[in-house]
Amino acid sequence: MSRTSAAQRLAGIASLVLAPLSLASCGDSGAATPPPTAVVAERLVFISVKDCAESNKIERAACEAIIDEAIARHVANAASFTSTKSCETAESADHCERTAAKAYRPRLLAFLVTASTPPTAVPLYAANGGDPGFHTLEGKPILVSDETLTFSKLASAALEQ
């Protein structure tokens, strides 16, 4: 047998063995793999640490930590006004408070808590429209009609005042 024919025979055998393997990676492999499902963290509205902790969604220590951070964000970033009138014009009547610096700012009423890992909270203020709810520092509405949110009983009661 010549070298060429032995090499050709070996190449032929190799192609017979490898062909099914190369075809296995082509086309539909059968069952499609579904895309991973994103876990959406629950978003809740509370008025206090106690309200948050009593929901049993987040541990009390975590409620304290995230609400303290939200209060610090409120103190540092809430809009500041020189008079009650200018504050109430922007925020609505009876929704302003006087600061130690003798300025006025929106009154902090509630917290939007995201039950993620780790959990987070942002300060909420009275809504500026006819729809019941709150708004964030950035003015984003947080409304009772939003079915992706859960309002605690105390947060819902605060809206009625």
Description:
The protein has 161 residues and is of the alpha+beta class. The protein has a domain at 42-78 and 108-159. The protein is 38% helix and 20% strand. It has helices at 3-24, 49-54, 60-77, 84-91, 153-159; strands at 42-46, 96-98, 104-106, 110-115, 120-126, 133-135, 141-143, 149-151. The strands form two sheets. Strands 7-6-5-4-1-8 form a six-stranded mixed β-sheet. The protein has a two-stranded antiparallel sheet with strand order 2-3. A hairpin with a 5-residue loop joins strand 6 and strand 7. The longest helix is centred in the first third of the chain and has 22 residues, at 3-24. The model has no long low-confidence stretch (mean pLDDT 83).
Keywords:
161 residues, two-stranded antiparallel sheet, 5 helices
Q: What is the fold's blueprint, element by element?
A:
Layout lengths: L2 H22 L17 E5 L2 H6 L5 H18 L6 H8 L4 E3 L5 E3 L3 E6 L4 E7 L6 E3 L5 E3 L5 E3 L1 H7 L2
Parallel strand pairs: 1-8
Antiparallel strand pairs: 1-4, 2-3, 4-5, 5-6, 6-7
Summary?
The protein has 161 residues and is an alpha+beta fold.
Question: What is the subunit arrangement here?
Answer: single chain
| SS element count, helices | 5
Number of E-type strands? 8
Helix and strand composition category: alpha+beta
Global geometry: globular
Biggest beta-sheet profile: 6 strands, mixed
Helix/strand order: HEHHHEEEEEEEH
Low-confidence segments: none
Tell me the span between the first and last alpha carbons. Answer: 101 Å
For the CA atoms, what is the radius of gyration? 30 Å
Strand content: 15-25%
Task: Give the mean pLDDT.
Answer: 83
Strand line-up in the sheet with most strands: 7-6-5-4-1-8
Determine the fraction of residues in helical runs and give it as a percent range. Answer: 25-40%
